[in-house]
Amino acid sequence: MAVIEVTGLAKRYADLTVLDKVSFSVEEGEIFGILGPNGAGKTTTVECVEGLRQADSGSIRVLGLDPIKDGRALREQIGVQLQHTQLPENIKVWEALDLYASFYAAPRDWRELVEQWGLADKRDARFGKLSGGQKQRLFIALALIGNPRVAFLDELTTGLDPQARRATWELIKQVRASGVTVVLVSHFMDEVEELCDRVAVFDRGGIVAIDTPRGLIEGIDAEHQMRFTLMAAADPEALLADLPGVSGVVRDGDRVVVTGRGDFATAVTARLARHHVLVSDLRIDKRTLDDAFLALTGRSFN
Amino acid sequence: MTALAKLTAVELKLLVREPGSMFTVLIPLFILVVFGSSIEPGDTMLLPMALAIAVGLVGLYMLPTTLATYRERGILRRLSTTPLRPVNMLVVQLLMQLVLAVAACGLLLVVAGTVLGARLPGAGWAVVATLLLGTAAMFSIGLLIASLAANGRTANGVGVLLYFPMAFLAGLMQPANQMPALLARIGEYTPLGAFRQSLQDVWAGGSPSVVLLGVMAAYAVVLSAAAARFFRWE
User: Which of A14, A191, B100, B225 maximizes the CB count within 10 A of its CB?
Assistant: First the structure.
């Protein structure tokens, strides 16, 4: 069942088109990624879905509700972590959670959340005294305090160190495991690749592709390379040049670089094995979402 | 506990933890005590001045700074994603600033009445009406600053910048009868000046001028309407 259905969303500010013909749906229980460079329309899209902004045209249904008309009922069932929001400097961790819990009809117990999000020893600390990672964990806990069916997390790990990012990713997987649908807005490729079941790639106010991260990467029809070192004399040019997908073989001493498209690497290794050519240092350039983005939009992500 | 009661309780705690609240209460008290040593028993001048200073500080300094900071930090925006309507936060904040003004004035009245032996008028309609309208006028200025200022720091700066000329014109830096006649006349029609003059009229045992009460009411209505017109949630 789709918990979010967006059809033909459009939004303009003065003569600037921010969103145009944005359509996607999010299935129950998945982590759905909204990926794109800054200014691609990610946050505007999510804010329309949350009911914070009104779209100029198009239809949005979240849990069967209209985010503007049924806003009150919808806000009972969603949790939101916004980019660039803070709490009052002097509010204590437990006070913030206890306060936000009181806004919802059936909230979660904040004591459980402080345990789960590693804030138990900070429950009496003031917001202003928390580290960046602790603040971020508190925001996620606040997004979950209302026991939501859908959680929206916007730029979850911006400003966190690599270790804190990894730890946050593990916790987000737990959120999905508990049955909450997660919409993750991010401009980090690695984060989306690691966490998301499906991704909508945004560019200049529109969606250029929706697929699994793997599907996006495999869908790239761009040249990439594999490299290896010959362990004994052989003639790789003659051996490999006619393989499907291979577009070039360059040899420099015992170092060989093969260029091609699609899944040519499997064919290359199979033929080398059949001819008993032993190689070492075999490396295939790993293709990432960055490459997928480049292939989809014709420009590099950053 | 309902959401509104809990919000009030938390905001009250935050108000107490905010160092600015302490200054707002202590500055007028300090002025009262320092100058209080030289007043005659039954004085009707000093306490009205201290009260006007206290309410002015809350309205021009605390109120706009707090509200603009809340908006700047995205607190109002974050609230609008919950079932609680963010207008509740504005109402609770106004209530908190009112609590602060009442606390500051209460402390001044107690200290002036007991230790300093200044005159205290009975709690007639005139006292209540003057305090209410004066507070409304001061708060409406604060609301307008909060609506127009981009962030907490700007709101704070504008509040402080407005406070000094207003306090001067209101006769809070030197008695109005020692000011040039024209300035004193203009000063009477400023919000803080009308407030100070009305308080002094009441303290002296008379009735407040209906014109001055009207001036304060007009400021409150017009400035609040402008604040509502220009207010942005984000």
Answer: B100
- Structurally, chain B folds into a number of domains equal to 1
**Closest Cβ–Cβ partner in A52, A86, A146 for B80:** A52
B155-187 pLDDT, tens digit each: 999 999 999 999 999 988 888 788 888 988 899
* B22: DSSP letter: H
- Per residue in B57-94, pLDDT (tens digit) is 999 999 999 999 999 999 999 999 999 988 899 999 99
Q: Give the class (CATH, top level) of A2-218.
A: alpha beta
Minimum CA–CA partner of A146 in chain B = B82
Which domain, by its residues, includes B34?
3-230
ipTM value: 0.88
In chain A, domain spans: 2-218, 224-286
- Reading the block at residue B140, the tokens are 């409406």
Model pLDDT for residues B183-199, shown as the tens digit of each residue: 888 999 999 999 999 99
Query: In the predicted model, what is the mean pLDDT of residues A58-76?
Result: 94
Contact of B17 with chain A, judged by CB distance below 8 Å, is answered with: yes
DSSP code string of B106-129: HHHHHHIIIII--------HHHHH
Q: How far does B174 lie from chain A, in Å, by closest CA?
A: 38
The answer to whether the beta carbons of residues A228 and A283 sit under 8 Å apart is: yes
Helix %, strand %, coil % of chain A (to 5):
35, 30, 35
CATH class of the domain at A224-286: alpha beta
Residue among A136, A107, A138, A108 at smallest CA distance from A122: A138
